[in-house]
Design goal:
Layout: E1 12-19, E2 30-34, E3 40-45, E4 51-56, E5 60-67, E6 74-80, E7 85-86, E8 89-90, E9 96-103, E10 114-118, E11 124-129, E12 135-141, E13 144-151, E14 155-156, E15 158-164, E16 169-170, E17 173-174, E18 176-177, E19 179-187, E20 197-202, E21 207-212, E22 218-224, E23 228-234, E24 239-244, E25 254-256
Length: about 260
């Protein structure tokens, strides 16, 4: 857009500095001057030290706008009468938001899921609980990188990265259904064996957990992912049973026998 040309009435000057809320200079801020009809009459850019100068032949009430990427624009009305005007601009970082939908492994929306945003220092910056439509929204996040931790009953928790822009960011998340492994340990004659030690080991040899059977010989492992495990029961000579979980599974019974002489 062409600026209005100066006339014989002289040139008015508007000078100042652009700073953020902490007082630091904000270079490369676009400074735009408008008349009361909304026409652009002058434009400038702040320097490395945040200083700016706008020349205009316009007089009267003018609108000065300071805007920079990642900051909320500031709009000020100034009275210009052909003499220098000093005006500093303070702009604050824009706040974006995170919004999206949380779904389960079957693709259905999950209500009541907890979504927590943490910044790069690990500090919690916001949280939300999904509604009946599975949707969530976390407002007032400064632009930058975050980690979203999501948990819901009956599902494996997950964490995903998200980059927030000043315009806001959409991030949909899908959780995997948590599997449960249950069974009993009993002797050869069918008697439930309490106080037996049951250890669960994943496919790469990591111990997932250890349980001690109750008076009815039962044991349970919850919050598991669907993969291959090895169940080891001891108390008598140990017995190892390999199982592949594809969702929850009950009735993984283990038979322990006395050690033969």
């Amino acid at each position: 857009m062409a600026y209005r040309t100066t006339d014989a009435g002289g040139v008015g000057v508007i000078r100042g500095r652009v700073r953020d809320g902490a007082g630091a200079p904000v270079p490369r801020t676009a400074i735009t001057l408008l008349d009361t009809a909304g026409h652009q009459v002058a434009r400038a850019t702040s320097r490395a030290d945040g200083s700016y100068t706008v020349d205009t032949s316009e007089r009267g009430s003018l609108v000065l706008i300071g805007s920079a990427p990642g900051y909320q624009p500031q709009v000020t009305t100034l009275s210009v009468n052909g003499v220098p005007v000093s005006h500093d601009i303070v702009i604050h970082p824009s706040t974006g938001g995170l919004a999206g939908t949380v779904r389960g492994g079957d693709g259905d929306v999950l209500s009541g899921a907890l979504v927590v945003a943490t910044d790069q220092r690990g500090e919690v910056t916001g949280s939300a609980t999904t509604g009946n439509d599975g949707g969530y929204r976390i407002d007032d996040l400064l632009p930058g990188d975050y980690t979203l931790s999501v948990s819901a009953p009956g599902h494996r928790p997950t964490a995903v990265p998200a980059t927030v822009s000043s315009e806001g960011t959409s991030c949909d998340i899908q959780l995997v259904v948590a599997a449960t492994l249950r069974g009993t340990v009993h002797t050869q004659d069918g008697r439930a064996l309490d106080d037996a030690r049951v250890t669960l080991i994943d496919a790469v040899g990591n111990v997932v957990g250890t349980r001690t059977t109750g008076v009815d010989g039962s044991y349970s492992f919850a919050d598991l992912s669907s993969q291959q495990y090895t169940v080891i029961a001891s108390g008598y000579p140990p017995v190892a049973t390999r199982i592949t979980l594809r969702g929850s599974q009950d009735g993984v019974d283990i038979l322990l026998t006395h050690k033969e002489a």
